[in-house]
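New here. Invent one.

***
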Amino acid sequence: MAYVFGRMKRKAGLAVFLASATCLSQNVALAATPLVSASGHARTHARPVSPAHSRASGGPARKHAVEAKEAEEISVTTSRQALNGGGGMMRIEHAPRNVQTVDHEYISMRNPSSTALDLIQNLPSVSISTPDPYGMQGGQIQTRGLTDLDMALLVDGAPAAAAKYITENIDTENVESVSLTPGSSETALPVMSAASGTMNETTHTPDKKFGGLVDFSYGTNNLSREFIRLETGEIGHSGVRGYVSFSNTHTRSWMGAGINDRRHVDFGLNKQWRNGSFAKAFVSWNWEDFTIDNYPTAQEFYKYKHTGEGYGRSANSNNINYWKNNTDYWNQVFLSAPIHIVLTRPLAFDLQPYYSIGRGWDASPGGTVTQADGTTRNVTSYFLQGATERRGATAKFGVDVDRHNHVSFGYWYENNYTQQSYPTSYTQDNGAAPSPNWAAYRIDAGDQQNAGTEIHSLFVEDHAKYLNDKLDIQAGFKFVMSNTWNKDLYGRMSNNRTAPLPQLSVGYTIDEHNQVYLNAEGDYRQPSAVDLGWLYTSVPIPKNQYSIKEELGYRYHDQYIILDASFFNYNVTNRIVNQYLGMNQFAPFSIGNQHMRGFDFMISGRPVHGFSPYASVEYLHAVQDSNVFDPYTNVMLNSKGTQAIMAPRVLANFGLTYKYAGFFGNASLHYTGPQSVSVAGDQRMPGFVTNTISLGYRFKPVGIAQSPTIKLNFANVTGSIVRTGAMGAIYSAKDPSTVYSGSLAPYTGYGNSFMTAARFTMTGTVSTSF
């Protein structure tokens, strides 16, 4: 896609003069364009821009096309691909911290049902686990010895659903890019838990003209998916542009019996003013009804691998483990509405309100009850969430105090709340779980709890540039004050805690090809409101986790390659992890201190004869620094000095993109090394490899169809049967847990439970814009 900077018509004979004037006017235009930093503030004053700095964020010089005809017409264009390498699997970055981004060039080649987790799976800092091939149930992230529970997951800079529910946030067609900043979060971001960094999904920018996009996908496991997006174009002459989209997804469970359905709506509005002000709104609605997967123990996994005997839900309605008695039903609305107002030339104001609310329930087998007449009936147990609500806003003033320093200060408020209960109902005669709200089946309302967190935070930041903007310094401080509570039938617990969060980032651009950067900061995590709801008030609320992190990095790019290398060191106190309780339920506990150090390296090539390679690797040395008491076996675990839980030492990735005329293709490989999956270090998971292939062809426009495209997406091409991650943390392989497996009744198992890679899948998609 090309951006048009300017177009002028003049009389013949002025071509030379106009070509020079056009290049000069572009430099002036670039200088006067508001410079929006990653933190969102804009500098509105114009500065002279030298030819060396008239390049895309310091990247290679843009190529200009000058066309001269009788009625002289000059068109100046540039390509967004100038910022990409590896077919969009890597992007040139300039922030003084490690940033890893995949953009729309790569996203458009992937399966439309992909979530952000699928899109970032080849970044050097992450290992991704997903329970199904089509993103119906989200998944988990491991990064630098931490997990997605330590990460801020954002949509347009606003907190969104957790990784295991990430499909609720946005449809893939409406994602422009996904950026990961491992181990770092900017001072002004409204984030509560960002010890392992942030992941931000940037939403689609509405088109200037009326039109849209439509696609249809069909694949293995009876997948059918339909998507349509309508673009309003500019509404009148208001400068307001918008879009609305709808998708419908239906698929079978890949393991055992089960049907999964999802419906989703996205809505976006944009308005920009010539002085640099803008307003943006994004709203999504998500409805889903899916079968909750079984997650096998090591014993069950090896039985499946060696004998083919699965562990999925039963298709027999008389079986208590019937798939319709193991379902997740959920409705959610999410809103983000960032506003940037240029008040005067040096003063700007930012406001980012956000809101989300979700309601639904998880059903699971609850055994049987004997009635007065001596007959027995199956029972369904529920995790019923009457409301899971998050509301908040960040307000920030920014001022250019001089030509070098932009100072911002602000306030962040957030309120998290969950109201949940655990009712029991009779199972319907057809074996399906009734709604827990149906009085005709209700046995009892069960325990009821509510929990939440209220946050007040003040922050200040100075963003300074010196030495002709080569030296970039960002220094900030955020002070967080939080009140956390947990209430049930047995009482109420609460506490007030504070967290000082300093940050210093320094970047130096050596020349147009080389940059070095340094980042150091403090960060914290506290249990989420939903996690607290699983702790009875007899159990103390875990202390806040606190992290001190340092990072040193180097970047290089030219017309052939893009390279980024970083070294990092973390020290974490009061490490909080989550134990999987079954049926999509988790509970937090603390495992003391740990430290992690290592390096990330990623490199990608610009297109050569249509080929764009990509490779990345991470080495991680993560160590548990504390012995931990195991309440299940009543012993002190000698865990000090062992490999930290869920922290593989090596991650490696390779990708190759090919484009020629209308044809495109991408292949990727990911490797995760062996890892410990228990705090005691007595249960481990071997390394594994995952892979994907994308192939497609874009035809020339035909009538109203502006970009008719067909593509095929393949996952797990080799059909490997591997575990891709532990469902949570456990103390020891000797810990007991309740296990549901296939047609078996619930029984006591031992050790961790796991996500496994879905078998080979293929998806075909036809699409076009119009």
Notes: Confidence is low (pLDDT under 50) at residues 1-78.
